[in-house]
C-alpha cells in the first residue's frame, strides 16, 4: 500500500552559488557521512559532478521528506537520510538514528529515483507500507 509520494526539482546553479557563498558548510549540513565522502571526491575530480551529486541528494531528501509527510521536521533531518548506491547502481535510501526508528516502527519501505541534467536535478520517492498500518 502506498504511504506517500514525493517529488522535487533543484536548480544546480542555485546549489553552485550556495557552495560559492558558504564553502562546503552547506554540503556538510545536507550530506550524511557516506555522502560527504563521495561529494568531496567528485568535487575534487570535476566540480560540476560534485555540484550535481549534492543537488541530486538535496532533491532526493526533499522528495523523501514529502513522501513521509513530515517535511523537514523531526525526526527527519538532512543527515539522518542518505541516498546511497546499491551494488547494481540503483539508488537507495539509508536512514539513521531516530528517523530510522520512526520509519521502521511504521513498517515503511522507500523507493527513490534521481536524475540530473545540465541545470537541474530531480528526484521521485514512493514510500510503501508493508502492511495495513494506521501510522
UniProtKB/TrEMBL annotation:
SUPFAM superfamilies assigned to the protein according to its UniProt record, in alphabetical order: 4'-phosphopantetheinyl transferase (SSF56214)
Main location: cytoplasm
UniProt subcellular location: Cytoplasm
Entry's Gene Ontology molecular function annotations: holo-[acyl-carrier-protein] synthase activity; magnesium ion binding
Residues in 4'-phosphopantetheinyl transferase domain copies: 4-124
Source organism, top-level taxon: Bacteria
Enzyme Commission identifier(s): 2.7.8.7
GO biological process: fatty acid biosynthetic process
Pfam families assigned to the protein according to its UniProt record, in alphabetical order: ACPS
Classification via InterPro entries: 4-PPantetheinyl_Trfase_dom (IPR008278), 4-PPantetheinyl_Trfase_dom_sf (IPR037143), ACPS (IPR002582), Ppantetheine-prot_Trfase_dom (IPR004568)
Annotated positions binding Mg(2+): 8, 62
Reaction(s) the record says it catalyses: apo-[ACP] + CoA = holo-[ACP] + adenosine 3',5'-bisphosphate + H(+)
Reported cofactor(s): Mg(2+)
Annotated keywords: Cytoplasm, Fatty acid biosynthesis, Fatty acid metabolism, Lipid biosynthesis, Lipid metabolism, Magnesium, Metal-binding, Transferase
Gene Ontology cellular component list: cytoplasm
NCBIfam families on file: acpS, pantethn_trn
Function: Transfers the 4'-phosphopantetheine moiety from coenzyme A to a Ser of acyl-carrier-protein.
Family (UniProt): Belongs to the P-Pant transferase superfamily. AcpS family.
Protein name, entry field: Holo-[acyl-carrier-protein] synthase
The organism's taxonomic lineage, starting at the top: Bacteria, Pseudomonadati, Pseudomonadota, Betaproteobacteria, Burkholderiales
Gene: acpS
Amino acid at each position: 500500500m502506498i504511504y506517500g509520494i514525493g517529488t522535487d526539482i533543484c536548480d544546480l546553479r542555485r546549489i553552485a552559488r550556495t557552495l560559492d557563498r558558504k564553502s562546503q558548510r552547506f554540503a556538510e549540513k545536507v550530506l550524511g557521512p557516506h555522502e560527504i565522502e563521495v561529494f568531496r571526491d567528485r568535487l575534487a575530480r570535476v566540480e560540476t559532478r560534485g555540484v550535481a551529486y549534492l543537488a541530486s541528494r538535496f532533491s532526493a531528501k526533499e522528495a523523501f521528506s514529502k513522501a513521509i509527510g513530515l517535511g523537514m521536521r523531526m525526526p527527519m533531518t538532512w543527515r539522518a537520510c542518505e541516498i546511497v548506491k546499491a551494488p547494481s547502481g540503483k539508488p537507495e535510501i539509508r536512514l539513521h538514528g531516530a528517523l530510522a526508528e520512526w520509519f521502521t516502527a511504521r513498517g515503511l519501505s522507500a523507493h527513490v529515483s534521481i536524475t540530473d541534467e545540465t541545470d537541474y536535478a530531480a528526484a521521485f520517492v514512493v514510500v510503501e507500507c508493508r502492511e495495513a498500518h494506521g501510522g
